[in-house]
Amino acid sequence: MQEEEFVSKTQIKKQMDDRQDLGMQLTKLSTDTLKKIGLDESLYEAIVFYKKINSNGALKRQAQYIGRLMRDTDPAPIEAFLARLKGDNTAHNALMQRLELLRERLIDNDEALTTLINQEPDLDIGTLRTLIRNARKEKELNKSPKARREIFQVLKQHFTAEKSSDNDNNADENEHN
């Protein structure tokens, strides 16, 4: 006979609380994102219904119900999906920070523009030069940073379009292999 591992009441309660917390994280996601996870139908409906409730007491009861449904659900795929979702945000935030730094370097000196032109020959250089000139003028005159924002948008548009085309090329290569 095989002995069962002893699990204390406290550990069971902690697991239930963790599952309910995971369920509450799911309530913060959009319905489209929830569909991507592939949740059990009753859990999905409970989460969607939670979003429609306004009453505090009813919210607490529905949270308890979601926690109850989560006990019967394997948390590993949900946790993995949420981790991937947070990872995407982290990568996006890092890209935005790099673009902000690049924008500041472009405004501060011309050598950064020359380097960028050499690295990214398909970038719209004329527009970028004009925006940099306008941003420097705005900085001198203490005007609102309209050109700085436009520089950021041009860079963002270029680098996110480039990234998505790289992903498309990788997907095409994977399909052919």
The count of helical stretches stands at 8
Which stretches are poorly predicted, pLDDT < 50 over at least 5 residues? 167-177
User: What's the total count of β strands?
Assistant: 0
Mean pLDDT: 85
**Domain module count:** 2
Shape: elongated
Q: Tell me the distance between the termini.
A: 50 Å
The main β sheet shows up as: none
Order of helices and strands: HHHHHHHH
Kindly state the percentage of residues in helix.
over 70%
Task: Supply the CATH superfamily name of the largest domain.
Answer: PSPTO4464-like domains
CATH topology of the largest domain: Diphtheria Toxin Repressor, domain 2
Class by SSE composition: mainly alpha
Percentage beta strand: under 5%
User: What CATH architecture of the largest domain would you give?
Assistant: Orthogonal Bundle
| Highest-level CATH class of the largest domain | Mainly Alpha
**Rg measurement, Å:** 25 Å
Short synopsis of the structure:
By secondary structure, the protein is mainly α.
What does this structure look like?
With 177 residues, the chain is mainly alpha-helical. It has 2 domains: 65 residues, Diphtheria Toxin Repressor, domain 2 (Orthogonal Bundle); 87 residues, Diphtheria Toxin Repressor, domain 2 (Orthogonal Bundle), CATH 1.10.60.30. Helix content is 82%, strand content 0%. It is built from 8 helices and no strands. α1 packs across α4, α5 crosses α6 and α5 packs across α8. It is elongated. 13% of the residues are buried. The C terminus is likely disordered.
Fold topology:
Elements: H1 9-27, H2 31-37, H3 41-52, H4 56-71, H5 75-108, H6 110-119, H7 125-140, H8 146-176
Helix pairs in contact: 1-3, 1-4, 3-4, 5-6, 5-8, 7-8
Subcellular location: Cytoplasm
Function: Member of a network of 50S ribosomal subunit biogenesis factors which assembles along the 30S-50S interface, preventing incorrect 23S rRNA structures from forming. Promotes peptidyl transferase center (PTC) maturation.
InterPro entries: DarP, DarP_sf
